[in-house]
Amino acid sequence: MPKTTSPAQTPDLESGVDAAVDAAPKRNRRGRPGYDRETLINKATEVFVTRGYDGTSMDTVARELGITKSAIYHHVKSKEELLHLAINRGIRALDSAVEAESQRPGLDALERLRAAVHASVVILIEYHHSVTLLLRVRGNSAVEVEALEQRRKIDDKIRVLVAAAIEEGGLRSDFTPGLITRLLFGMVNSITEWYRPSYPVDPERIADAVTSMAFNGLEV
Question: What transmembrane ranges does the database entry give (predicted)?
Fold first, then answer.
Protein backbone atom coordinates (compact mmCIF):
# COMPACT_ATOMS: atom_id res chain seq x y z
CA MET A 1 0.00 0.00 0.00
CA PRO A 2 1.45 3.41 -0.91
CA LYS A 3 2.84 5.44 2.00
CA THR A 4 0.98 8.61 2.87
CA THR A 5 2.26 11.62 4.72
CA SER A 6 0.77 11.97 8.17
CA PRO A 7 -1.19 15.13 8.81
CA ALA A 8 1.06 15.86 11.80
CA GLN A 9 4.11 16.07 9.53
CA THR A 10 2.41 18.03 6.75
CA PRO A 11 1.96 21.81 6.91
CA ASP A 12 -1.55 23.01 6.21
CA LEU A 13 -1.80 23.92 2.53
CA GLU A 14 -3.64 27.16 3.14
CA SER A 15 -1.15 28.21 5.86
CA GLY A 16 1.70 27.52 3.45
CA VAL A 17 0.13 29.79 0.85
CA ASP A 18 -0.39 32.55 3.43
CA ALA A 19 3.20 32.26 4.62
CA ALA A 20 4.49 32.60 1.07
CA VAL A 21 2.41 35.73 0.57
CA ASP A 22 3.62 37.26 3.85
CA ALA A 23 7.21 36.64 2.81
CA ALA A 24 6.67 38.80 -0.29
CA PRO A 25 4.35 41.62 0.81
CA LYS A 26 4.72 43.61 -2.40
CA ARG A 27 3.13 40.87 -4.52
CA ASN A 28 -0.58 41.03 -5.27
CA ARG A 29 -2.79 38.57 -3.35
CA ARG A 30 -4.79 36.51 -5.82
CA GLY A 31 -6.99 34.73 -3.30
CA ARG A 32 -5.93 31.28 -4.54
CA PRO A 33 -7.92 28.69 -2.56
CA GLY A 34 -6.06 26.35 -0.24
CA TYR A 35 -6.98 22.73 0.39
CA ASP A 36 -6.26 20.49 3.33
CA ARG A 37 -5.61 16.83 2.57
CA GLU A 38 -9.19 15.64 3.07
CA THR A 39 -10.66 18.38 0.90
CA LEU A 40 -8.06 17.70 -1.78
CA ILE A 41 -9.07 14.02 -1.90
CA ASN A 42 -12.75 14.95 -2.11
CA LYS A 43 -12.22 17.40 -4.94
CA ALA A 44 -9.84 15.12 -6.85
CA THR A 45 -12.33 12.24 -6.61
CA GLU A 46 -14.97 14.41 -8.26
CA VAL A 47 -12.53 15.31 -11.05
CA PHE A 48 -11.63 11.64 -11.64
CA VAL A 49 -15.32 10.72 -11.88
CA THR A 50 -16.15 13.61 -14.21
CA ARG A 51 -13.16 13.33 -16.54
CA GLY A 52 -12.16 9.68 -16.10
CA TYR A 53 -9.09 8.63 -14.15
CA ASP A 54 -6.97 7.56 -17.12
CA GLY A 55 -7.74 10.78 -18.96
CA THR A 56 -6.90 13.02 -16.01
CA SER A 57 -3.36 14.23 -15.37
CA MET A 58 -2.12 15.86 -12.19
CA ASP A 59 -1.93 19.10 -14.18
CA THR A 60 -5.65 18.71 -14.89
CA VAL A 61 -6.42 18.06 -11.23
CA ALA A 62 -4.44 21.15 -10.22
CA ARG A 63 -6.15 23.28 -12.85
CA GLU A 64 -9.61 22.09 -11.86
CA LEU A 65 -8.91 22.84 -8.20
CA GLY A 66 -7.31 26.18 -8.92
CA ILE A 67 -4.04 25.32 -7.16
CA THR A 68 -0.51 24.49 -8.29
CA LYS A 69 0.60 20.94 -8.94
CA SER A 70 3.31 21.34 -6.31
CA ALA A 71 0.56 22.11 -3.76
CA ILE A 72 -0.97 18.69 -4.51
CA TYR A 73 2.40 17.02 -3.94
CA HIS A 74 2.44 18.42 -0.42
CA HIS A 75 -0.17 15.75 0.32
CA VAL A 76 0.36 12.84 -2.11
CA LYS A 77 3.30 11.48 -4.08
CA SER A 78 1.49 10.53 -7.26
CA LYS A 79 -1.81 10.36 -9.11
CA GLU A 80 -1.99 6.64 -8.30
CA GLU A 81 -1.73 7.37 -4.58
CA LEU A 82 -4.52 9.92 -4.95
CA LEU A 83 -6.66 7.25 -6.65
CA HIS A 84 -5.91 4.83 -3.81
CA LEU A 85 -7.03 7.37 -1.20
CA ALA A 86 -10.12 8.31 -3.20
CA ILE A 87 -11.31 4.73 -3.70
CA ASN A 88 -10.47 3.58 -0.18
CA ARG A 89 -12.99 5.96 1.33
CA GLY A 90 -15.86 4.15 -0.33
CA ILE A 91 -14.40 0.69 0.21
CA ARG A 92 -13.84 1.19 3.94
CA ALA A 93 -17.31 2.62 4.46
CA LEU A 94 -19.02 -0.15 2.48
CA ASP A 95 -17.04 -2.93 4.13
CA SER A 96 -17.67 -1.58 7.63
CA ALA A 97 -21.40 -1.25 6.97
CA VAL A 98 -21.78 -4.74 5.49
CA GLU A 99 -19.65 -6.30 8.23
CA ALA A 100 -21.61 -4.59 11.00
CA GLU A 101 -25.01 -5.56 9.59
CA SER A 102 -24.01 -9.13 8.75
CA GLN A 103 -22.95 -9.71 12.37
CA ARG A 104 -25.93 -8.11 14.13
CA PRO A 105 -27.15 -10.39 16.94
CA GLY A 106 -30.75 -11.44 17.36
CA LEU A 107 -31.60 -11.36 13.65
CA ASP A 108 -32.04 -14.18 11.17
CA ALA A 109 -29.99 -14.26 7.97
CA LEU A 110 -32.69 -12.62 5.85
CA GLU A 111 -33.03 -9.71 8.27
CA ARG A 112 -29.26 -9.22 8.33
CA LEU A 113 -29.13 -9.37 4.53
CA ARG A 114 -31.86 -6.75 4.19
CA ALA A 115 -30.03 -4.54 6.69
CA ALA A 116 -26.73 -4.95 4.83
CA VAL A 117 -28.30 -4.01 1.49
CA HIS A 118 -30.07 -1.03 3.05
CA ALA A 119 -26.82 0.19 4.63
CA SER A 120 -24.97 -0.26 1.33
CA VAL A 121 -27.40 2.06 -0.43
CA VAL A 122 -26.98 4.75 2.23
CA ILE A 123 -23.17 4.47 2.07
CA LEU A 124 -23.18 4.56 -1.73
CA ILE A 125 -25.09 7.83 -1.64
CA GLU A 126 -22.95 9.32 1.13
CA TYR A 127 -19.72 8.38 -0.67
CA HIS A 128 -21.19 8.75 -4.13
CA HIS A 129 -18.06 9.81 -6.04
CA SER A 130 -15.74 7.38 -4.24
CA VAL A 131 -18.01 4.38 -4.87
CA THR A 132 -18.58 5.45 -8.48
CA LEU A 133 -14.82 5.48 -8.95
CA LEU A 134 -14.56 2.05 -7.32
CA LEU A 135 -17.14 0.61 -9.71
CA ARG A 136 -15.25 1.95 -12.72
CA VAL A 137 -11.81 0.45 -12.02
CA ARG A 138 -10.73 -2.36 -14.34
CA GLY A 139 -7.51 -3.62 -12.80
CA ASN A 140 -5.13 -1.52 -14.90
CA SER A 141 -2.76 -0.84 -12.01
CA ALA A 142 -1.75 -2.28 -8.65
CA VAL A 143 -4.13 0.14 -6.93
CA GLU A 144 -7.03 -0.96 -9.14
CA VAL A 145 -6.24 -4.65 -8.64
CA GLU A 146 -6.29 -4.13 -4.87
CA ALA A 147 -9.59 -2.25 -5.12
CA LEU A 148 -11.17 -5.06 -7.14
CA GLU A 149 -10.02 -7.60 -4.54
CA GLN A 150 -11.57 -5.55 -1.73
CA ARG A 151 -14.76 -5.29 -3.73
CA ARG A 152 -14.84 -9.06 -4.19
CA LYS A 153 -14.48 -9.54 -0.43
CA ILE A 154 -17.53 -7.36 0.17
CA ASP A 155 -19.47 -9.35 -2.44
CA ASP A 156 -18.43 -12.58 -0.69
CA LYS A 157 -19.85 -11.35 2.63
CA ILE A 158 -23.17 -10.66 0.97
CA ARG A 159 -23.11 -14.03 -0.80
CA VAL A 160 -22.63 -15.80 2.55
CA LEU A 161 -25.67 -14.00 3.93
CA VAL A 162 -27.73 -14.91 0.85
CA ALA A 163 -26.76 -18.56 1.17
CA ALA A 164 -27.67 -18.55 4.86
CA ALA A 165 -31.04 -16.92 4.13
CA ILE A 166 -31.79 -19.60 1.52
CA GLU A 167 -30.74 -22.33 3.95
CA GLU A 168 -33.01 -20.91 6.64
CA GLY A 169 -35.94 -20.80 4.21
CA GLY A 170 -36.16 -17.02 4.07
CA LEU A 171 -35.28 -16.70 0.37
CA ARG A 172 -36.42 -18.72 -2.60
CA SER A 173 -34.03 -21.53 -3.46
CA ASP A 174 -34.50 -21.67 -7.24
CA PHE A 175 -31.79 -19.03 -7.71
CA THR A 176 -28.16 -19.53 -6.71
CA PRO A 177 -26.57 -17.31 -4.02
CA GLY A 178 -24.17 -15.92 -6.63
CA LEU A 179 -26.98 -14.89 -8.98
CA ILE A 180 -29.01 -13.27 -6.21
CA THR A 181 -25.95 -11.35 -5.01
CA ARG A 182 -25.28 -10.05 -8.51
CA LEU A 183 -28.91 -9.02 -9.00
CA LEU A 184 -29.05 -7.26 -5.63
CA PHE A 185 -25.91 -5.27 -6.20
CA GLY A 186 -26.71 -4.64 -9.82
CA MET A 187 -29.69 -2.69 -8.50
CA VAL A 188 -27.71 -1.01 -5.73
CA ASN A 189 -24.77 -0.04 -7.93
CA SER A 190 -27.02 1.38 -10.64
CA ILE A 191 -27.74 4.28 -8.28
CA THR A 192 -24.33 5.73 -9.20
CA GLU A 193 -25.61 6.28 -12.75
CA TRP A 194 -28.50 8.57 -11.84
CA TYR A 195 -28.12 9.83 -8.29
CA ARG A 196 -27.06 13.44 -7.77
CA PRO A 197 -26.86 15.38 -4.48
CA SER A 198 -29.77 17.51 -5.67
CA TYR A 199 -32.05 14.46 -6.02
CA PRO A 200 -35.22 15.34 -4.07
CA VAL A 201 -35.51 12.09 -2.08
CA ASP A 202 -33.84 11.34 1.26
CA PRO A 203 -31.12 8.62 1.12
CA GLU A 204 -32.98 6.54 3.72
CA ARG A 205 -36.11 6.59 1.55
CA ILE A 206 -34.10 5.48 -1.46
CA ALA A 207 -32.61 2.63 0.60
CA ASP A 208 -36.11 1.64 1.76
CA ALA A 209 -37.33 1.57 -1.84
CA VAL A 210 -34.41 -0.54 -3.06
CA THR A 211 -34.72 -3.14 -0.30
CA SER A 212 -38.51 -3.37 -0.67
CA MET A 213 -38.38 -3.78 -4.43
CA ALA A 214 -35.50 -6.25 -4.30
CA PHE A 215 -36.81 -8.54 -1.59
CA ASN A 216 -40.49 -8.58 -2.47
CA GLY A 217 -39.62 -10.83 -5.38
CA LEU A 218 -37.05 -12.90 -3.52
CA GLU A 219 -38.70 -13.77 -0.24
CA VAL A 220 -40.61 -17.00 0.11
Answer: none
Residues 6+ apart with CB under 8 A from 24: none
Q: Which amino acid is it at 42?
A: N
Q: How confident is the model at residue 24 (pLDDT cuts 50, 70, 90)?
A: very low
Q: What is the CA radius of gyration of the chain?
A: 21
Give me the numbers of helices (H) and strands (E) for the chain, helices first please.
11, 0
Residue 30's φ and ψ, nearest 5 degrees, are -95, -10
pTM of the model: 0.78
Structure letter (DSSP) for residue 8? G
Q: 96-127 pLDDT, tens per residue?
A: 999 999 999 999 999 999 999 999 999 999 99
Residues 59 and 65 sit within 8 Å (Cβ to Cβ):
no
Angle ∠(38,90,215) on CA atoms, nearest 5: 150
Report how far residue 177's alpha carbon sits from residue 175's, in angstroms, rounded to the nearest whole number.
7
Give ∠ CA 183-171-103 in degrees, rounded to 5: 85
Distance CA 50, CA 104 (A): 37
* CB neighbour list of residue 119: distance below 8 Å, 6 or more residues apart: 97, 98, 100, 101, 207
Distance CA(143)–CA(196), nearest Å, equals 27
Q: What are the structural domains, with CATH classification, of the chain?
A: 7-76 (1.10.10.60), 87-216 (1.10.357.10)
Instruction: Return the H-helix or E-strand segment holding 98.
Output: helix 79-102
